[in-house]
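Researcher: Sequence recovery benchmark, item below. Answer with residues only.
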């Protein structure tokens, strides 16, 4: 694993976040360049909500989310719906995230000329996860990226995570404990207040 920098890209302090009402927290942790931080916790503990608080898509009821100035992020959604009304090809979807199709593994290359609406859930899940990791960003948020993936796709995703640039940070949510602990420098349990292990 790359050595994490001490400069935080994101600093979360006493965060309680949600939508109409609180869903997650309180939770505190930082994310530095070169670091992969995992979020674990029981179902419904608010792991996805913490990711959305980082992007600004969830309401912060108390505590703070501080982002480094000019922070560039990509966000892999757990339940991203394939847009049937948009006749996007895989190649065009990558372009939306600024991901370089020229660096794509064969599994992604096979999807480049296929309409997104015709892909299986697993194919679209992998395409989205790879695009988020391949985009020129500082921080990638991955929400259950192994859902619907077969063993070969999970192994390929692991290779991509292991080969990330040293200045890239990732926040990873996964119910697969082995996958989470294999790739993370630290795992924060959001189902317990201020748990950082």
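Model:
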């Amino acid at each position: 694993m790359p050595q994490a920098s001490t400069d935080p890209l994101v600093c979360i302090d006493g965060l309680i976040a949600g939508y109409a009402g609180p869903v997650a927290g309180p939770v505190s942790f930082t994310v530095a360049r070169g670091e992969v931080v995992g979020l674990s916790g029981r179902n419904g503990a608010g792991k996805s909500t913490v990711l959305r608080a980082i992007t600004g898509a969830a309401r912060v009821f108390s505590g703070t989310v501080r982002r480094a100035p000019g922070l560039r992020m990509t966000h892999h959604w757990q339940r991203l719906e394939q847009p049937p009304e948009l006749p996007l090809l895989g190649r065009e979807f990558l372009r939306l995230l600024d991901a370089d199709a020229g660096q794509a593994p064969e599994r992604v290359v096979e999807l480049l000329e296929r309409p997104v609406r015709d892909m299986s859930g697993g194919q679209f899940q992998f395409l989205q996860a790879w695009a988020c990791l391949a985009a020129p960003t500082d921080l990638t948020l991955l929400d259950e990226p192994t859902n619907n993936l077969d063993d070969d796709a999970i192994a390929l995703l692991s290779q991509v995570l292991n080969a990330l640039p040293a200045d890239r940070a990732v926040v990873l949510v996964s119910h697969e404990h082995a996958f989470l602990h294999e790739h993370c420098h630290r795992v924060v349990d959001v189902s317990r207040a201020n748990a950082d292990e």
